[in-house]
Design a protein that fits this description.
The chain has 213 residues and is α/β, with parallel strands linked by helices. It has 9 helices and 7 strands; from the N terminus they run H-H-H-E-H-E-H-E-H-E-H-E-H-H-E-E. Helix 7 runs parallel beside helix 9. The relative contact order is 0.14.
Length: 213
């Protein structure tokens, strides 16, 4: 419990001022988010949960891309949720929650979600493997977990890659280079299908974990 409170306080401190410029600045380096949203393939009435919903930018894009989807979001930062509430209003159900320990029924009164997305959040969650497992547990039968996050950047020039990693570290971001392996292990344990893609230059990585119907 103390670790959760500590991380929540850290995220509030990081984003208290940043949340006001977050969407403007992040579009220049959080690549792959819209590709993830385009791949959700949702039908009206289906449910979408974003873990680490931040300012609500991705849920707002998903609302436009997939009309009729029912939107939900959780974030550990009350500061970020203020921005998300302002952006989405009554168009999404948003709540304060820990990505590593939540239940669909406990937070949202849902038995599970048709889609769960995590966009550049695992790299900021200390116990990211627990968050990955919890997100898998939140899937409804036939549901899919869509993840995008930083990759190894191996296609970038060395100095640029080192500079990027140093800059990300200032914001407590640590690329999870073993994400594909961890997702495959989670999928194997549950009998889920796992697909992995690599973005240009290895800048980002995408994972989709699909539960059988």
């Amino acid at each position: 419990m103390m670790a959760t409170q500590s991380h929540a306080q850290l995220m509030d401190n990081v984003y208290r001022g940043q949340r006001h410029i977050y969407d403007i600045t992040r579009k220049y380096f959080l690549f792959g988010r819209d590709r993830l949203i385009d791949g959700l393939d949702m039908k009206p009435g289906q449910t979408l949960l974003e873990v680490g919903c931040g300012t609500g930018r991705n849920l707002d894009q998903a609302r436009r891309r997939w009309p009729g989807a029912r939107l939900f979001g959780l974030d550990i930062s009350s500061q970020m949720l203020q921005s998300a509430h302002a952006k989405l209003g009554t168009q999404a159900t948003l709540t304060l929650g820990d990505a590593c320990a939540f239940s669909a029924s406990g937070l949202f009164r849902q038995s599970g979600f048709d889609r769960v997305m995590i966009s550049f959040a695992l790299s900021m969650i200390p116990d990211w493997q627990a968050a990955l497992s919890t997100a898998c547990d939140a899937l409804a039968p036939g549901g899919a977990l869509h993840i995008v996050d930083f990759g190894d950047g191996s296609g970038l020039p060395g100095p640029l890659r080192q500079g990027l990693n140093a800059w990300l570290a200032r914001f407590h971001v640590s690329p999870r280079l073993s994400l594909p392996e961890a997702a495959r292990l989670q999928g194997k344990a549950r009998g889920f299908r796992v697909e992995v893609w690599r973005g240009a230059f290895g800048y980002y990585q995408m994972v989709v974990v699909t539960r059988k119907k």
